[in-house]
Amino acid sequence: TCRVSMSMAEIRAGFTAIKANIQSRDPIRTLSILSHPHSLHKVKSSDRCCITHQLFTFYVDKVFKHCRTEDSFVNRKISSIANSFLSVRRKLGQCREQNNCVCGEESTEKFKQILANYEGLNVTSAAMKSLGELDILLDWMEKSR
Amino acid sequence: SGELYCSLPNPRNVHFESINMKNVLHWSAPEGTGDGVFYKVKYAVYGVGKWIRKPECRNINRTWCDLSSETSDYEEQYYASVKAFLNGTCSDWMETTRFNPLTDTKIDPPMVSVSSTDRSISIILTAPEKWKRSPEEESVSLLQVYPGLQYNVSVLNKKTKKRWFFSISNNTLVVPWLEPGTVYCVSAQIHVTTPVLDSGFSKEHCITTLKDK
Questions:
Q1: Of the given ranges (A23-27, A40-44, A110-114), which has the lowest mean pLDDT?
Q2: Are B17 and B28 in contact (CB under 8 A)?
Q3: Percent of chain B at pLDDT above 70?
Q4: Contact call for residues B179 and B157 (beta carbons, < 8 A)
Q5: CB spacing of B147 vs A143 below 8 angstroms
Q6: Which of B75, B101, B127 marks a domain boundary?
Q7: pLDDT score, position B35
Q8: Which Cys pairs does UniProt list as disulfide-bonded (chain A) (predicted)?
Q9: B48 within a domain of the structure (yes/no)
Q10: Residue at A14 is within a domain
Q11: Shortest Cα distance from B188 to chain A (angstroms)?
Q12: Is B152 a domain residue?
């Protein structure tokens, strides 16, 4: 198994501080990047590590860098969350190298769907929507601890 | 649908008020409107492409609508919206911010029961239940919803006014080495570490330790 320590409360606090601001920049109610059509909560436990690693890579590579705002407070919170994600992704990467974080078909399919949702929007809208859904990821991670 | 020109001011402060995941939509009447305003309510599951009308909250003149049943799946997030009508005119639809039942609910204090011997008191704590549609429905404790749920317990010696604080994860606590024949008052709070959620403290439960044998 792959055990990774992370400052969940710190990430959660950072997101809570900017949640209303970020979500108000996403006018699209009818589309979700992470939770539809397939919910993260339906992912098998054996696939959880892999999809977590894929999602942290997704946020580092495709989300945070496209979420600059005109608000310096918000930008600081985003970069603090991004730094936490970077360190967790590195640890998860080590698990993958040691074959403790295997990717099954389900997580591959699920992640494909997430990328398809993301690519269905222009980059800035997709990145901002993904950032606004961070609590969906955190809720799922806490529940499946 | 018979709506004429929508020039009515909008309902204000449309928001969810949630306690133990009983999720009630509240709003304020449009500015400057007295009696006679009626409202319609609709809601949407975030990420799903349709708004759903709430029949029980159609043409109502109160300024709240219980959407607990419609928002009971706390793995989803929601929006709700309200429209006002008066004398044939109407307002725009006014929406809530995105509502996440898991992080946006408030939690009631735990139930506290206390018993004593001559030199100790035993405390049993019970977390509140998640809102449910009917008494027959299976109860879900908030302990099941929040794996990181803990209790903060305060014990006060009424005579010396000395107070102890304990933070525990399981729901029982025995406080030893107390004074016989003394009144101790217990109060407890729920603390969820992440997402950060704190209940208020329960009212005090006082008990007297037995006299020395």
A1: A40-44
A2: no
A3: 97
A4: yes
A5: yes
A6: B101
A7: 84
A8: 2-95, 49-101, 50-103
A9: yes
A10: no
A11: 22
A12: yes
Judged by DSSP in three states, A125 sits in helix
Q: Distance (Å, rounded) from C-alpha A54 to C-alpha A58?
A: 6
Q: Are residues B200 and B115 in the same domain?
A: yes
Count of domains observed in chain B: 2
- Give B57-100 pLDDT, tens digit per residue: 999 999 999 999 999 999 999 999 999 999 889 999 999 999 99
Q: What is the pLDDT of residues B171-185, one digit of tens each?
A: 999 999 999 999 999
**Contact at 8 Å (CB) between B20 and B109?**
no
**B28 in reach of chain A (CB within 8 A):** no
Q: Which residue of chain B comes nearest to A23, CA vs CA?
A: B98
Can you name the residues that pair with A89 across neighbouring β-strands? none
Same domain, B193 and B116: yes
- Asked if the ipTM is above 0.85, the reply is yes
Q: Which domain holds residue B30?
A: 12-101
How close are the terminal C-alpha atoms of chain A, in Å? 12
Spatial separation of the C-alpha atoms in residues B84 and B93, rounded to whole Å: 8
Indicate the residue of B49, B77, B97 with minimum beta-carbon distance to A30. Answer: B49
Beta strands in chain A (DSSP E): none
Residue whose C-alpha is closest to residue A34's, from A104, A117, A126: A117
Q: Which of A7, A22, A29, A131 to mutate to test the interface with B (most CBs of B within 10 A)?
A: A29
Give the CATH number of the domain where residue B165 resides.
2.60.40.10
* pLDDT for A46: 87
pLDDT at A98: 82
**Same domain for B123 and B96:** no
Could you tell me which residue, A141 or A98, shows the higher pLDDT? A141
Q: Which residues in chain A have Cβ-Cβ distances shorter than 8 Å to B193?
A: 9
User: Which residues in chain B are closer than 8 Å to A39, comparing Cβ atoms?
Assistant: 75-76
